[in-house]
Structures are given as C-alpha cells and as structure tokens.
Amino acid sequence: MPSSTESWGIEVGSSAIKGIRLRKDGNEVAVTDFAIQPFKKVLTTPDLDVDESIRVNLTQFMADHPVGNATVVVSVPGHRAFARFAKLPPVEPKKIPDIVRFEAVQQIPFQIDQVEWDYQTFANPESPDVEVGIFAITKERMNAWLSNFNAVELPVHRVTLSPVAVYNALAYDRGLDASSPGIVMLDIGTVATELIAFEQGRIWLRTIPIGGNHFTETLVRSFKLSFSKAEKLKREAATSKYARQIFQAMRPVFVNLVQEIQKSLGYYQALNRDAQLNEVLGMGCTFRLPGLQKFLKQQLQLEFRRLDEYARISPEGRDASTFAANALSLAPAYGLALQGLGMEDVTCNLLPANIVRQQVWRQKQKWMAGAAAAVVIASGLAFGKLHQSRSGQGGEIIYPGPDGSDRNVEHLIVEANRRQGEWNQEAGESKDPRVKIEQLRGILEHRDVMMSILHDIDDALASVGPQDALKRGDWDAIRAIPRGQRREVAIESIDIRFDVKEDSRRGPPGMGMAGGGFSGPGRFNDDSMEDDASRQIHVTIRVTSPHAQAADLMNDTVLKWFQDHREIAGRGYVINTDDDVLGFEVEPYHSGGGRGGSSPRGVGGSPLSVGGPPRGGPMLPGGAGPAGGLPAGSERFQPGIVTGGRDGGRRTVSGASDDPKDLMPVHPLADEDRSDDWMFTVKFRVDLQDSEPTDAEGDVTARAEGGS
Question: Checking phi first, is residue 520 left (phi over 0); if not, alpha (psi -120 to 50) or beta?
C-alpha cells in the first residue's frame, strides 16, 4: 500500500528524467530526495530508440533513488494530451457530472470510450458561473507511455498532465487563490511550450508547438551541422566567439515564439474580457538561452521573472546548491509529488481505470488476509472454550432450541417484519436508477447518422460520372464541352427533417434541431432523456443540372444508387425506396419557383446535375444556399467561397454595396446561358435502426473518414 506521507513526483522529459521526493509534515512538506537523470541524447534525436532510452534511464534512476513504498505520480507532456475548458449552465451540483460528461463527448475529438479523461470544476464565490476543465489522452498513447514504467517494474499510482503539475506546484509554493493577481506561467520545454494562465481561482492551458528543439533545428539548417553538434552549439552560444551569428540564426524562432504567445494571450483576453494578467513567470531549460528572458519581456510588455527558486521547499546540506541550480526545470516534478500527498489544487488523474481497480484490490487483499486470520483465531478460541465446557459437564449438556413463545424471539420477529415493510415501501416509491442510466446512454445514439447521410448524398450524386474536366475545375476544358452534355449536378440546398411527436420539437437522442435545415448538437436537458418513438428522417435536396437529358441521367444513376445502397451493414439506418417515398420533382431553372412535372420514380420530368468543378464550401443550415450551390461528386464539402449559380456570380468592381453577393468573385462561367438548365427537388426517407455494437460504429466512422 503506497504511503500517504511520502511521495515521488517523476517527470520524463525530452532531455532528462526529473524527480522530487517529498515528505508531508502537517501542512508543510520537506524535500527528502531529488534527481536529475539526463539522457545521453535528447529524445528528439533522429533515429533514436526513444522507449529504450527511457527504460535505461528509469532503471538507473531506480538504482540510485529507491522508490520504496512512496506514492509515485508521473506526468504526460502537454503536447501528447489535450485540455478543453467550457462554462457550464447554472444547474444543481448533483447534475454537474452528467453535464460534464455530455460536454466531454462534444469537446474531446475522439470517441469517449477511446480516451482516459478527468475533469475539474472552477467556481468563484463572487460569481455564479461554473467553469470546467476537461483533460484527456487517448488510451493508446497512455498505454504506450505506461509501458516504459511497467518494463522496469516502477509502480505508478497517478498520472496527470505536465502543465497541470506546474500549476499545482506554483499554487502551493506561492499560495495562489481566488484573490491572487493574474499570472502567466510559461514552461518552455524541448518540444513545446506550455502556457498556463491563472486568474480568479481558475486556470486556462494552451500548448504552443515551439520549444528548444526548434532553436537546434534552425542551427542544423543554418550551419549544416549534425543534430548533436547543433545542440552543443546552442548550449555554448553565450561563450562562443560566433555568438552573434548563432543568435542571428535563431532570431526567427524567437519571433515565432513571441507571436504564438501573444496570440494565445489575446485569445484568452477575448474569452475573459475583464482578465488582468500582470506577470509572466518563466521556467524550463530553454530559459537558459541568453537573451530569451529580455526579448520576451520587451515584446510582451509584461513584468517578467524567471523561476530560480522556490519559497516553501529546499533540500538541506550540500544538495541545496544543486537543487537551486536546477529549479528552472523541477516545477512539474514538484507539482506531481504534491499530488501524491493529496495537496494539489487541481485534481487530474488519467491512470486507466483497470489499473486503479488492480491497485485497490491489492490493498484490500492485505486487509482480507488479516480479517481471515482473525476469524480463524476467534473460531479456534470459541471451539476450545466449548470443548472445555463440554468436558467439564461430562457431555450431559442439552441445548434447547428457541421456543416461539420466547419473548426475545417474538421481539426479533416483529422487528424483522417492520424492517421488511420499510424496505418494500422504499423500493416501491423510488425510481430504478437503471432507467435513468439507459436514458443518458441514449443521448449518444445515432450521433453518426448525420455525417453518414451527407456522405450518401455525395456518393449518390457522384454516380452520374462527371467528365474529368469538371472534376479538375479546368474552366477552358469545361467550356469546350457543350453545356447540354455536361454530366454535372450542383447542390442548391439540403434540408433534413426529423419526424417528431406532436408535443415535441426534438430530434433523435444526441441531436437537436438547428432549424431550417441541418440539425446541430442538442442541448443537454431533462427532455433529452425521454424516449422518442420517432424513427424517421426526411431528406430534401435541391440540385441544378445543365444536362439536356437530366431526368434520364437522374433515373439511371442517382435514384439507382439509392436503390442499390438501400441497406449497408453498420450504417444505422435504411434508405426507404418505396415508390411513394423516393423520387424527385423538376422545374425549369429559370422558372423562378414554379414546379413542372412530378416524378415519384423520376419518370418524365427533367434533369439533375452532379460532378461540377470544385466551387467552394458547405451549405448554411436550411433554405437555399449561396448562389451556385454546392457541387457534388468532386471534392467532399470543402470550405471556401461558393460562386456562380442562379445569380450569375456578379459583383460590383468599384463602389460600395450592401448586397453580400456583390462581394463574391465572378464565376468563370457566369456569362453562359442557363435558360435550358433544370432544377430538381429530390426527396427520400431514412428509417433509423437500433444502435449497432461498437464494431459496427467503427465501420461507420471509418467510412466517414475515408469516404466510400
């Protein structure tokens, strides 16, 4: 069982393994050991076996500094994980975990079952707002990271993010609380820079992908050196006779770093209008570069200090000077050791749940063994006493059974009946929590349906087989194709509607109505936990085509695609191809809204259009989109400016205009006659199916990522 008064905080960085051992004494801590174990080569050296280097150094670390029964807390670098922050709506405290989980599903860019995650809420007594910080790492990365510790049999009891550990260290060392002035902590590491903004009792993190390695790589390119020689040159830059040339070569990295820091602080200020950050505290080995601190202070226009010492910890004796010389890089290990003692300000533990259960079970085994031994001893004593008593009475002992008339027995029976009645009443009045749990799980049902429907639409329209010139966007080649022969379809709008109850305007679980078109992520509320009998989605697509035989083109390709792909394993829905459901309506493009013929199966009517050159970005929710629509069958719904279309893509070259269309670029084919073009309204229905197992969901996700 790990000790609650001794803790090792171990940070595996890119240049060294750093560790601090703390002993708790009341509300204070004392340093009992510390270590800085440099790697022979930094872990970013090309062609280096990183895992092997880490394991060799960890083995040496354990040989020089035995861990014993101390609690071990390690960190993962900020650039290997991610942190998100969000404000929560005002709700009862007991509902916060449910809302945070819902927020985590929205914020984390992976399936929730593919990550290890934790959260911390931040509240200011003077404000009703509650913020939450969500910290996560993929299970794959976490298992790979922990494998290095398992390989050398170093037990790990907690895992957190390196920037969180930095904050915990300074929060304890400097006594930060809600009344403390705003401060920016800047930890410039080998690979990345961790920016931690603290104000009014809450934190905000951002990882900047610029670190000491970027200075080294600049020297490699500028002076044609190997990575190892460039690293050595960087460390000796201050005393080199070529110092001026060295710093001149590194200047672009200095500038890029400052720009990224300024952008991050500007973004934080935009999120928190009243924020006042008055001081920057720098740490990390890269701050040993001469001139870096001065340059940052001049550019950021903030009070700038370097973390050269700690206020509340310092080893005694001859190690004190070594500790002070390395204080710049020991903040993460300091914060990790504090978390092992339960003295952290922000609690974040990303250790996989199965490992936590194993540790708890091992702790309980010792207590269970002791309890079993106590039972055996007690049983032996009781048996011995019984044997002695029987022997004394010559074996003539009679043990009468309980009599129903015995007052003690009657009392026990009455008490048992009373408690049974109370239990039955409680069980009848309370709601089964499993129902609530299943309703919460239903929020995520069909979350991939919207993306899959959009891909089906794109694949169906692409089946018309556009000419190569249309795919490439080669305008000269497109002009050479007679307009009536172009196998092109352009999307004007997509409208997706859910069947809902008469007393509800809510979509399926996990989706909310965005109004007028696409549905967006739903709000988390009590209504979203109710069952919804609706299982149908109605899709309406308005498309245009210049093809002379567009109706036949539609029947032979697009509608046939929907029929052939009616059902796909793992997709979560079936496309209804009944005659009264799947079909289209057609009208001349220049009619201005009057409909022509109607064709349930596309018989009669006129054309559709697919496969135009790439013209731009996604539709706005609902209604007709920007002029010119969205081309299908080329590049998948890419962002950009949509041009051309019903209004010809005209704009005013000079003079001001209040019409947004006048600000759009002129479409290269805007001068062509569109009087013979056609517009189609394609309609079909999607019937939802029950959620598939995880493997099927993975198939749908893979299809969405890789296309069909």
Answer: beta
Predicted confidence (pLDDT) per residue in 592-626, tens digit: 443 344 343 343 333 333 444 433 333 333 333 33
Closest CA to 441 of 531, 571, 512, 572: 531
Q: Are strands 536-545 and 490-498 parallel, antiparallel or unpaired?
A: antiparallel
Within 8 A by CB and 6+ apart from 71, the residues are 2, 3, 4, 6, 7, 8, 157, 158, 340, 341
Would you kindly state where each structural domain of the chain is located, as residue ranges? 6-351, 403-441, 445-706
DSSP letters spanning 561-588: HHHHTSB-TTSSEEEE--TTTSEEEEEE
Residue 209 CA to chain centroid, in angstroms? 18
- Which distant-in-sequence residues (6+ apart) come within 8 Å of 702 by Cβ? none
Q: What is the dihedral of CA 396, 401, 407, 412, to 10 degrees?
A: 130
Kindly give the pairing relationship between strand 130-138 and strand 82-88: antiparallel
Rounded to the nearest angstrom, the gap between the alpha carbon of residue 179 and the centroid of all alpha carbons in its chain is 31
Beta bridge partners of 11: 18
Element (H, E) at 166: helix 162-174
- Beta strand pairing call for 277-283 and 303-306: parallel
Q: What's this model's pTM, rounded to 2 decimal places?
A: 0.55
Contacts 24+ apart (CB under 8 A), 515-518: 515/621, 515/622, 516/621, 516/622, 516/623, 517/493, 517/619, 517/620, 517/621, 517/622, 517/623, 518/450, 518/494, 518/619, 518/621, 518/622
**Positions of the chain with pLDDT under 70:** 1-2, 359-370, 383, 386-408, 426-436, 500-534, 580, 590-666, 691-708
Please say whether the structural domain 6-351 has been given the CATH code 3.40.47.10.
no
**Alpha-carbon span 554 to 384, nearest angstrom:** 94
At 94-130, the pLDDT tens digits run 889 999 999 999 989 999 999 999 999 988 777 777 8
- Residue 64, number of CB atoms within 10 A of its CB: 10
